[in-house]
Write a structure and sequence with these properties.
Largest sheet: 7 strands, mixed
CATH class of the largest domain: Alpha Beta
Bound molecules: pyridoxal-5'-phosphate
Shape: globular
Radius of gyration: 20 Å
Strand order of the largest sheet: 2-8-7-6-5-3-4
Distance between the termini: 47 Å
Structural class: alpha/beta
CATH topology of the largest domain: Aspartate Aminotransferase, domain 2
CATH architecture of the largest domain: 3-Layer(aba) Sandwich
Number of helices: 11
Number of strands: 13
Length: 352
C-alpha cells in the first residue's frame, strides 16, 4: 500500500483474470475464449481500417454499430449502449444504477467481477446461495433493495434459467434495476431482450467476446429502455468519450453481419460441448448441464487442484478456483474437437 493512494484505491480488491500463458503451443481452455478464428470478413475489414484515418478520433456515439445491433436484437437504436467489452458496460451499470447504502443481490457463486465493482463503488451486496443443484435461487433473488445482477447462463456453473424464472425475478424487484449478464447466452439459453419492452427496470448485457470470437477487440453492449441507456451514456461521457476504437468498431460491425460464419462456429462449440460432457461423464466425472461455452466439472479419483496442475504440466490450461465453495470443481472452456480429444486423452492417462 502506498501513502499516495486515494481512499478509493486503498479499498479496491481487483479482479484476477485467468492466466494468459506466453508459450504459443499450449491448449488454452481457461478463459472461455472461442477456439475459432474471428470472421475472415471482419479480419480483412479491420486490416483495411488500419490506415491514415487512425489519426482521427472514432465516433463518440457509435451510431452505425448501435443501429446494426438494434436491428439484430429487434429494438430501437436508443435502447442500445456499446462499451469496451461487457466488463466496461457492467462497470458503468453498477455506477449508473446502484447506490451506496442500498444492498444489491447476486448469486453466491457467480462472475467474480461483481463484488469487485461493488467494492469499488461502495455498494453493499448480499450473496444469495445457489440451490442444492447449483441453480440460482429465484425466490432468494427477489426483494432486493438496491438492485440485482446475475449471468444467464450463470458462470462458472453454465446452468441456464428459463425466461419465466427470469421474469419472476423481474416481478419480484419492481423498484430497482435488474441486470442480466448474457455473456454466454448465444450458446444455448433464452435471451431476456424479449422482456425489455415490458420491464422498465431490465438491462441485458451481451458481448462479442465469446459468441463472435472477438475477445481481443473488446466490444460489448447493453439493451434496455431508453432511460436506462441514457443513464449509461451519462456515465460514459463523464469518463471517456471514445471508448470504442476505430478498428474495433469496423471489426464488430462486419462480424455481426457475417451471420453464416457466426452460426457455423456457434453450432460447432455446442456440438463439441455435448460430446466432451458425455466423455467426461463416461470417465465418472460429474458434469453440470452447461448452456455456455465452458463446463463445470467435478473430477473423481483425482482432486480438482491435482487435475488442474497435472494438465497444466502437460500444456493444457483449465481454470481452478481456489475458494472453498468451488475447489471441488474445474472449469473447462470448450476448445476445438482436436483440443478436447487431447484433453480427454490426458485425463485418462492421469487417472491410470
Ligand atoms: C459472466 C461474464 N460476464 C462478462 C464477461 C466479460 O466479457 P467481456 O468484457 O469480454 O465482454 C465475462 C468474461 O469472461 C463473463 O464470464
Amino acid at each position: 500500500m502506498s501513502k499516495f493512494w486515494s481512499r478509493t484505491v486503498k479499498k479496491t480488491s481487483p479482479y484476477v483474470p485467468g492466466e494468459q500463458p506466453a508459450q504459443p503451443d499450449v491448449i488454452k481452455l481457461n478463459t472461455n475464449e472461442n477456439p475459432y478464428s474471428p470472421s475472415q470478413q471482419a479480419l480483412t475489414a479491420m486490416k483495411e481500417s488500419v490506415d491514415h484515418d487512425l489519426r482521427k478520433y472514432p465516433s463518440p456515439t457509435v451510431d452505425s454499430l448501435k443501429t446494426l445491433i438494434a436491428n439484430r436484437e429487434g429494438v430501437d437504436g436508443n435502447q442500445v449502449f456499446v462499451g469496451n467489452g461487457s466488463d466496461e458496460v457492467l462497470a458503468f451499470s453498477f455506477q449508473a444504477f446502484f447506490d451506496p447504502n442500498e444492498a444489491i443481490k447476486f448469486p453466491e457463486i457467480t462472475y467474480s467481477f461483481y463484488p469487485v465493482y461493488a467494492k469499488l463503488y461502495d455498494i453493499p451486496y448480499q450473496q444469495v446461495p445457489l440451490l442444492e443443484d447449483f441453480s440460482i435461487d429465484v425466490e432468494g433473488m427477489k426483494q432486493a433493495i438496491g438492485g440485482v445482477i446475475f449471468p444467464n447462463p450463470n458462470a462458472p456453473t453454465g446452468l441456464a434459467m428459463n425466461l419465466s424464472q427470469v421474469e419472476e425475478i423481474l416481478k419480484g424487484n419492481p423498484n430497482c434495476v435488474v441486470i442480466i449478464d448474457e455473456a454466454y447466452v448465444e450458446f444455448g439459453a433464452d435471451s431476456a431482450v424479449a422482456l425489455v419492452e415490458k420491464y422498465p427496470n431490465l438491462l441485458v448485457t451481451k458481448t462479442l467476446s465469446k459468441s463472435h470470437a472477438l475477445a481481443g477487440i473488446r466490444v460489448g453492449y447493453a439493451i434496455g429502455q431508453s432511460h436506462l441507456i441514457e443513464g449509461l451514456e451519462r456515465i460514459k461521457n463523464s469518463f471517456n468519450s471514445y471508448t470504442i476504437n476505430r478498428v474495433s468498431l469496423v471489426g464488430a460491425e462486419v462480424a455481426l453481419k457475417d451471420e453464416a460464419y457466426y452460426e457455423q462456429t456457434l453450432n460447432q462449440v455446442i456440438k463439441t460441448r455435448k460430446w466432451v460432457s458425455e466423455a467426461l461423464a463416461d470417465i465418472g466425472f460429474d458434469v453440470l448441464n452447461s448452456k455456455a461455452n465452458f463446463i463445470l466439472v467435478e473430477p473423481k479419483g483425482i482432486s480438482a487442484k491435482q487435475l488442474y496442475e497435472a494438465l497444466k504440466e502437460a500444456g493444457i490450461f483449465i481454470r481452478f478456483f481456489n475458494r472453498p465453495e468451488l475447489d471441488r470443481f474445474v472449469r473447462i472452456s470448450i476448445g476445438t474437437d482436436e483440443e478436447m480429444e487431447q484433453l480427454i486423452e490426458q485425463v485418462k492417462k492421469l487417472l491410470n
